[in-house]
Structure prediction request, 116 residues.
Amino acid sequence: MFGFFKKTEPNEAKIDAFCSWFLANNDRIITSVENSQNDRDTMFKTLDEVEAQLAVVYRDGYKGDIQFEYGFNTHIGKWDLNLYHLNNKFLIAATTKIAEKINKELGNKWSANTAK
Prediction:
């Protein structure tokens, strides 16, 4: 009965798997955006893949729509990955951990951020 109120923590192995996938596919993600004028289908397919990979992390503690965006930030000369936590405690923890790991591994090319 009291299991309904149990706090769910993000699964570290799933976060690591997402970050490893993102690390391995970040060049393909960038290419899909850069070629979007000529190949919108690939860009949307890649966007769907990123969402599907995030869903694996999120589904343990969040059932709503996944909100994120990515693109080149000319002000900092890097690609931005913005992960929205929507003031959900589970998502705040998950997005913070994802952002830390991506910034550690790809900080020279990507800036991962969390936002409301």
In short: The beta strands are 68-73, 78-84, 110-115. The first strand starts at residue 68 and ends at 73. The mean pLDDT is 95. Helices lie at 12-34, 40-58, 89-106.
